[in-house]
Specification:
Elements: E1 4-8, H1 15-23, E2 29-33, E3 41-49, E4 52-62, E5 68-69, E6 77-78, H2 92-103
Parallel strand pairs: 1-2, 2-6
Antiparallel strand pairs: 3-4, 4-5
Length: 107
Amino acid sequence: TIPISFLISPPTGSSAEFLLIAFKGRPKTILVGTETAGFITGIEGFQINDATSVLLSTSYGKDRLGRVYKAAFKPDILVIGADSFTNLNKDEKVKQAVRWLKQVKAD
């Protein structure tokens, strides 16, 4: 199993959270950063008339074991702030993720 580290924060939402669901429970997988947005819903569009429609959340995300996710994901390693998008060597989330990846061996 190859170790995987996901960097997460409040902009991590919707389809990105569904990707996290797909990896939830996988060995050697970790979340680093801060809580995600919590937009873990499936939406459906309903036509009201020729000019109007509405999108409603009608379902929650569910993993391969049938667990339903209704709330934001919390990180395994909490790292608040210290983002450095222009110099990743100074980004604390990246540094923590790399540190963890170096500690975990692939099978």
